[in-house]
Amino acid sequence: MAASPHTLSSRLLTGCAWYLERRAVQEAPHTFMHLFRSINRRWITFQHFTFLKRMYVTQLNRSLNQQVKRKPEPVALPFLEKTSLGQAKAEICEMRPLPPPSLPLSRKPNEKELLELESASIIEGSLDAGKETKDEKHWKEMKLHLDDLPGILARLSKIKLTALVVSTTSAGFALAPGPFDWPCFLLTSLGTGLASCAANSINQFFEVPFDSNMNRTKNRPLVRGQISPLLAVSFATCCAVPGVALLTWGVNPLTGALGVFNIFLYTCCYTPLKRISIANTWVGAVVGAVPPVMGWTAATGSLDAGAFLLGGILYSWQFPHFNALSWGLREDYSRGGYCMMSVTHPALCRRVALRHCLALIGLSTAAPVLDVTTWTFPVISLPINLYITYLGFRFYTDADRKSSRKLFFCSLWHLPLLLLLMLTCKRPPGARGAGAEPQS
Amino acid sequence: ALPCVAAAGGRWMVGFRASRRALLPPLCRAFARPGCPLGPERGAERREAAASRVSGFCPPRKSCRDWIGPPDKHSNLRPIHFYIPESESPLEQKLRQLRQETQEWNQQFWANQNLTFRKEKEEFIHSRLKAKGLELRSGSGQKATLDAEEMADFYKEFLSKNFQKHMYYNRDWYKRNFAITFFMGKVALERVWNKLRPKHKKSST
């Protein structure tokens, strides 16, 4: 770097410049000038100018082109008039020992100005580390580092949510009647996982400016510029194509079709609908319900009552989960332009959440009727179903942040536990017919 | 204290900044490493225009890439400082201009949106507190606020008021996003093609 020999001394002098600036506005100009003379004045002056310029420019940008005229302080004004631009220029010109760069300049700027500003840029360049404002430190080069890529792609594909989706698919597969086929299970899980990654990536691709404005989502990779939109779309395609192919040819076409349908529903229906109508919540609930259905169809190859029951349970669960979550995000949704029940129809929001908590009890009771589980299941799942219904009722009546949070956190453990209980109560093969003896 | 000092030199600063803007391109070029060859006049003008819009930040001389900044205070969007390469093709230029323009358009929309929201929220709080007969600041000096349930009316009203505006914005945003991504794809293909072509020429001669 051209100016590196000056770095240490310039940093010391920068420190001095800052100190002097503080004193400048407190002391009379002549005292300040005296101080200046005690150090290499020419160097500090230019430092000062560049720093002031930077401060002013940063402030100007922050005011967003609104013409903010700050009242100038009389103390400071004489100081700046004293150390005139011309004087500084001349001093800098004689001081800088740097070789003049050979520039193929077709413009003809004022030579003095050019040298002065060259020096400014040299100083800036060498003192960036010392002088940069807090903001400038946060400017990052948009370069993709390969070792960061797995982490970035994991966040892009919402890997945790994908894992939950795959687990509901696995539950659907495991609850389906018939022998448990490991290769098929693994292919289904992998295919669904890839499809979910693709759908989540496209969702983030569409929502960059909205995500930037919400606290929950402002650290996503596309928002932070860690990858380009092109790469996000390419990644989504590279997940969707093998994922769907795996489901269609590795498992069965029905599962593949459901996978494509779900990707389409999530990216092309739910995501745009979020900003148009509250119907997005119902569409989103269907999106959540499809994966266990896919697991079921992967195992059985057909869409029968059990598949719909499982889908129904996931569908109903989405409402207490999402409605409770959205209760605390009303400000962000309103500002960002999202049409959510919690903002536009708050009473409906709470009513629907409670309604579906009750539906969960009903669906759990229907499970043995449809030969998915034994009669033990509705009995042992009643406590947790009653508890979530109770919290749903509290949310309905209290309608405050505390009750919404309680309902939301309950929903997080309620679903895995419910599915686990279903698995333990799965109807054993051979014992068919409604009203069969409960087997513990 | 410092902003006052800065403001005091306001007139001087404007002149300085203008001249800086005019001379930034040569400076950006001046200390570039051979890896980033100096651009012609065309590149200089564009660089100047780009730099003036995102002024206050100039990437290191040796950088050949775009730089992304911290979230803007008003719009929460992160500004990008676009790098203008020496051998920028028309397609690359088109992409960069589209991205630059979309960035400014987005910035304007969201800054305006957020400021309006904040302003209207304050007004709503004022009017509600007044209706309740409460002062804006309680005895202890704490700023009186409304709880979430009272604010809900405001959120609902604000959302419905801005619904149409969001519809237009959404439509335009989707169009721009697709266009930018499409052009990014085209540029990527063009670059790959250009990399392959000289080899092809060499092999043919």
Automatic annotation (TrEMBL), chain A:
EC class of the enzyme, as a word: transferase
TM region(s), chain numbering: 254-273, 280-299, 375-395, 407-424
Keywords: Heme biosynthesis, Membrane, Mitochondrion, Transferase, Transit peptide, Transmembrane, Transmembrane helix
Superkingdom, natural source: Eukaryota
GO BP terms in the entry: aerobic respiration; copper ion homeostasis; heme A biosynthetic process; leukocyte differentiation; mitochondrial fission; multicellular organism growth; respiratory chain complex IV assembly
GO cellular component: cytochrome complex; cytosol; mitochondrial matrix; mitochondrial membrane; mitochondrion; nucleolus
Molecular function via GO: geranylgeranyl diphosphate synthase activity; protoheme IX farnesyltransferase activity
Reactions performed catalytically: heme b + (2E,6E)-farnesyl diphosphate + H2O = Fe(II)-heme o + diphosphate
Chief subcellular location: mitochondrion
Topology within the bilayer: Multi-pass membrane protein
Keyword hit for Transmembrane: yes
PROSITE patterns: UBIA
Keyword ATP-binding listed: no
Pfam families tied to this protein: UbiA
Annotated localization: Mitochondrion membrane
Entry's EC annotation: 2.5.1.-
Function: Converts protoheme IX and farnesyl diphosphate to heme O.
Family: Belongs to the ubiA prenyltransferase family.
Stated name of the protein: Protoheme IX farnesyltransferase, mitochondrial
Organism (species): Canis lupus familiaris (Dog)
GN (gene name): COX10
Automatic annotation (TrEMBL), chain B:
Record keyword Transit peptide present: yes
Localisation per UniProt entry: Mitochondrion inner membrane
Assigned keywords, A-Z: Membrane, Mitochondrion, Mitochondrion inner membrane, Transit peptide
Family matches, as InterPro entries: COA8
Pfam families assigned to the protein according to its UniProt record, in alphabetical order: COA8
Topology in membrane: Peripheral membrane protein
Domain of life: Eukaryota
BP GO terms, sorted: intrinsic apoptotic signaling pathway; mitochondrial respiratory chain complex IV assembly; protein stabilization; response to reactive oxygen species
GO cellular component: mitochondrial inner membrane; mitochondrion
Protein family (similarity comment): Belongs to the COA8 family.
Protein known as: Cytochrome c oxidase assembly factor 8
Species name: Canis lupus familiaris (Dog)
Source taxonomy: Eukaryota, Metazoa, Chordata, Craniata, Vertebrata
